[in-house]
Amino acid sequence: MRSQGEHKTPSAPEKGWLPLSRYVIFGGILAGGLIADLATKAWIFARLGMPGEKPVWWLIDGVFGFQTSLNEGALFGMGQGMTALFALVAVVMAVGLPLWLFWSRAASDWRLAAAGGAVTAGILGNLYDRLGFPGLVWNYPGELHQVGEPVYAVRDWILVMIGSWPWPNFNIADSLLVCGVAVICLHALLAGDVEQKASRETNAKAENKKQAPIAVEKNAR
Q1: What is the pTM of this model?
Q2: Is-catalytic flag, 109?
Q3: Does residue 174 have an active-site annotation?
């Protein structure tokens, strides 16, 4: 039997399933984000057509509106023409991120579960486009394609003007990716600060314990 003054030594986190709420948070945000992304893309492209077919649909004239565009690169149009590479990376991330969250139990923090769901939804939303599932065909020639060829590009539709400069068109999947990654990075930074503070406090306590016997010995003399 343990005495009343004896405390149980903290043990490592138990392996096994996380609380159901973590799976619900992750899956709910993933499903909701993916549906919102694909539904809005389909709606806007059905209304405005392929790029250049109809003018910008301004909600705030000259500042914010809807305009269809197709991106054969990554975020902000980087890496044009590297569709196969980006699709492969997306598949790896879509599998690897949930494994990391739940295998390493990082998703025990609900904020990481939510951020992971958002990032995974963004990955899958844009991967759907890169694989050509929308069934679009190019209506204008380009360096990487000809008229009538299947489209393997991300459908973007949100237009924001910064003065006279247009921010690269984006979609809900992009927003989910950016916000989710930002939360994960911020969490990592804050967790690092907490660990450093705890380490400093532990070292200070250890140093105080070392100094205490010396002080007692001096007083005894």
Answers
A1: 0.79
A2: no
A3: yes
